[in-house]
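Standup notes
- HV: blocked on the assembly model, inputs below
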Amino acid sequence: MSAHASHAPAPNRSGLWDWLTTVDHKKIAILYLIAGGIFFLAGGFEAMLIRLQLMYPESSVIGAKTFNEMITMHGTTMIFLAAMPVIFALMNAVVPLQIGARDVAFPFVNSLGFWLFFFGGVLLNTSWFLGGAPDAGWTSYTTLALNQYSGRGVDFYVLGLQIAGIGTLIGGINFLVTIINMRAPGMTFMRMPMFTWSAFITSGLILFAFPAITVGLVLLMFDRLFGGNFFNPDAGGNVVIWEHLFWIFGHPEVYILILPAFGVISEIVSTFARKRLFGYSSMVFATALIGFLGFMVWAHHMFTTGLGAIANTLFGLATMLIAVPTGIKIFNWLLTMWGGQIRFTTANLFAVGFIPTFTIGGMTGVMLAIPAADYQYHDSYFVVAHFHYVIVGGLVFGLFAGLYYWWPKMFGKMLNETLGKWNFWTFFIGFHLTFFPQHFLGLMGMPRRVFTYLKDQDLDVGNFISTIGAFGMTIGTILFLVNCAVAAKSSKRAPADPWDGRTLEWSIPSPPPEYNFAQTPLVRGLDALWIEKMAGNKGMTPAEPLGDIHMPSPSFLPFLMSLGLFIAGYGFMYHVYVVVAIGMLITFACMFARSIKDDPGYHIHEDEIEEKGVKA
Amino acid sequence: MKGWQQFWRQLSLFGLLALVLTGCGKDELSALKPSGPVAAMQYDLMKLSSAIMIGVFVVVMLIFTYVLIRYRKRPGQQGIPKQVEGNHALEILWTVIPFLLLIIMAIPTVTTGFALGKVYSKEEAVQVTVTAHQFWWEFEYPELGVSTAQDLVLPVGKKVQFNVTSADVMHAFWIPALGGKIDTNPGQENKIWLQADKAGIYYGKCAELCGASHALMDFKVEVVEQADFDKWAAGMKGVQSAEPVAATAASAAQGQEIFNKSCLGCHAIAGKGGKMGPNLTNFADRERVAGILAHTPENVAEWLKDPQKVKPGNNMPNLNLDDAQVKALVDYMSTLSVK
Amino acid sequence: MATHQANAVLPDEPEKATLEGKNKVLGFWLFLGGETVLFGSLFATFIALRDQANGGPTSQQLFDMPLVAAATLILLTSSMTSVMATLALHKKDLKKIQLWLTITVLLGLGFLALEIYEFVHYVHEGHKISTSAFGSAFYTLVGFHGGHVAFGIIWIILLQVSAVKKGLTVVTAPKFYLASLYWHFIDVVWVFIFTVVYLMGMIGGKVG
């Protein structure tokens, strides 16, 4: 950075325009959280309709076709539009702070990633109003997902996910480069907080997994819109290719989702036990190993596809292996708490509740890895129970824990602990009531994705309990929203370090100034802040003198670029090529402008930096 | 915090739940009530793996509970806990033990996997070609020259080799009480063998999302003694190699006329008719109407009046029949028996 | 970054002289990693479907060695000229960069022209995206590559034009470097297409 460059004035910021143009990772985090939160509510609403339809046998609350739209949109929304963005919210809010960076490597790309995801999600959801949502399941297996057997909704699925997926991909690259290149002095890889490690590995998985779904979606788009024959058996196509591409992406995606939750839990369990993470290096190793094995096991989603006994057995055994590093993690968390002084804050309740819940999900995972037994579990409610134990009991618990933990850092306000505990217990009990009986429903012969079941099949009790449990989760979610509202209204500011934290983000004010660190901190070991605290220092030792700070300029281009693709998406779907041309023109013009016009950024002058020195 | 007390209360609730639930499950439908060697092998694997896993869970929960009670922060507690970096012995221990447990599971995984993957020739097993349609099942016995739909008839105690495919979208062929499932891929043929050791009726399901009426794509498996099976097959073959028999009763004859005009294009009876819809040669012998409704004249009539109401999205159009026509058709169809 | 003063003291390896430059180079390498998976998936799909001509023309009937060999030669030459541009970049010689990139662009255009001619010819022979699974897979894989070439050409031209005004700085240097890297990557992809699609296609039946 050339410190002597001309002083462009700090950009004028106000209201909506600021949010539409921001490239500040902390604000992008909030955008991700809000957008992901809204989609989470939509997905949750869909889930409630599903459970209401299944509350009693042979009922017709929403009917068969709508039910299939609901399950498709519930799955797609929760995975791509709720879980992923909230993970990105936490990564954006926390990772740069944890590594002592002023910003991410590509602030512009960061913003572009958000807007692509946002417009992709909006495009997908407009299907409700334009002839019906996709109804071929979130996996969109062909040939059901081809024109002959499903409606226009699947086009929205294809284009919406394509746009959102590109956003996720570039977001992943951004975090990889940020973590490799932007670490503060002394922050070696093996001193990085566990959450940053998990963000790093997750980003790597995103980079290598998302292109597979990109290709899958392109092929499906060609088949649906341009007369392609990839999946049409009558013209030599092969339906199993879609399954492979989908799961080559889809299985790593599961770890993309769960690894950040592992990271969150590691941070929280350690902070609230007042102990360093037990077996840090084995945790790092286990995380990397899970990420690596995650690419070797996709066919365990396809045991009943007919790949043959040899392939099934190999993929089954490889899948079982993942239990080993996962077990290492569980025991490391337990031993982190061993000998500590455990405080049961809401964040820690979610983290602690995660452990048995996720263990159950992992156990059923090992059971599912046995191909011969999986022939019974596959596509039954047993699988539904399993992946909700992993994704809700694992990931969503982790996200709640992370939000309660980092909320003060993100918003400068504390969430209410009493409400938080109500939130935890209603959600936790509701969750187990909903999904525990589903294991048995599956074994008793209930296939997944059925809009109803017959009266005389002994499936009534389990389904009824399951629906009651879903109300509990709804209440928990509403309590969380209430808690957010209460915190927003409260005038009490959160302290910089409310939890007696151990890592760098707690060394700066809540919320942090836009430049994060007035002076880049010098890191002297794992749990950088804790080391200084134990040494009796007031805060981090700065690694540089106080000086002007260069910041990137806000830009409206990411929004416009994504809008262009959004518009072009409709053109593709309705074969109106003028609209495609207009949309693509907007996008390419923005890329052109970005390439031609260099961003000079602006400087925050030394005098404007509010607090001198890096304080704890 | 009284967290762990609530937790235990909950755990006991689950225990109770589990007891209530595991006791249930219909003999005809539940994978937990195996009625053949395939389902039994799979049930054994389930029991072995869940036993090991529950063992692991108990260990985790014991440590978990101890830690939460023993090491919670007490009021007025001072000092900093010892910062432990790790413990190699422990870490090796909980890497090696799970690995050993996995090996215990891996052995039957391999052996059972290959046992189930076997393909039996026509000398060793009854051959059945299964073709899945939206939303019904077609069963052909190529060796016996018999074709039927919705009700699969099998001899007791004999291996059955299924060759499965689909005519439209992907479905999955699943008879939980007899054994796990296999996908029916359009354009490809998959193989699975099953065997029923007890005579009786079993429920079959479609397990892969296949459209609006996926939930209603049930079928029945009628397992009978070998002699009865032979008799049934001979009867079917006899009927299917001849023209449909003319109905005698007046109403049934009128029904047959309607049938020949409006239905025969898609549905075959005896040796005549299309293959778009289910073969109706032995319709009157079926366990259920459309795979789901009790086999009563009222339900047959309900289906004929509006098939979309019973099975949304199925390929049968509403023929707009009046009540008299429906009655005539029902009368005719109740004569379609080979028993 | 101010442009006027950076030029005077342009450091060695100017593409990695600033943190922004380093980030871009690393980020782009990672992006190419993702692109590798993308093309890998397309190749796998193509290999699975290449014999499914569905009664339409097969690869043995279609492919014409001289045409494809010419296209390959052109593209490989352009790969070399793009490397020359990078070498010129390390010598901080903008004129040479411009010269080599211009040749690269011209060769790229030649390649694209041949490819378009080839596609038009195939369509006349009845080989379309909708003819068969083989047709779909062929046009998607080769077309994706062609699209990458076209994008590269536009990108390089854009860089060349804007460099006339901006000169060679620590801001423009990484862009030249990345464009050259990108060009190199699509050439490597072509080598695989040449082998898997064309060579294996022409000997057909004997392999796989």
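- HV (later): unblocked. Residues 1-7, 612-616 of chain A have pLDDT under 50 and may be disordered. The CA atoms of residues 405 and 615 of chain A lie 20 Å apart.
- Next: hand off to the docking folks.
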